[in-house]
Amino acid sequence: MNKFQRYLLNWLIWIDLGVNTLRGGDPHETISSVAGKAQQKGERWACVLCRLLNMIQANHCANSIMPGVGAEAIVPDAIAPTGVDGNA
């Protein structure tokens, strides 16, 4: 990946984190991670989004799951990180 491609990727990640923050999610977690967690729970919106993202990169949502992130979400994610909600 050249410097320009890396620059564009950094912007996309920044936008992704920002959109997740705007929806009430953890500002350190990407939408793909949230969708991956929700897909594991069988939530329809996540299954549709992940199917679309799989056209760009195979298993994108599953590979994007950030298990230790999500505690700072105002709107809880599909699966809370271990120990955050007192369970697990």
- What would you call the quaternary organization? single chain
Helix content: 40-55%
Q: Quick check: average pLDDT?
A: 86
Distance between the termini: 39 Å
Structural class: mainly alpha
Radius of gyration equals 13 Å
Shape: globular
* Number of H/I helices: 4
List how many beta strands DSSP finds.
0
Outline the low-pLDDT stretches.
78-88
Proportion in β-strands = under 5%
Order of helices and strands: HHHH
**Which sheet architecture does the biggest sheet show?**
none
List keywords for this structure.
88 residues; mainly alpha; 4 helices; disordered C terminus
Task: Report on this structure.
With 88 residues, this protein is mostly helical. The chain has a domain of 40 residues. The chain starts with a helix and ends in a 24-residue tail after the last helix. The relative contact order is 0.16. The C terminus is likely disordered.
List the helices and strands and how they pair.
Elements: H1 3-22, H2 31-40, H3 44-54, H4 60-64
Helix pairs in contact: 2-3
What's this, in brief?
By secondary structure, the chain is mostly helical. It has four helices and no strands.
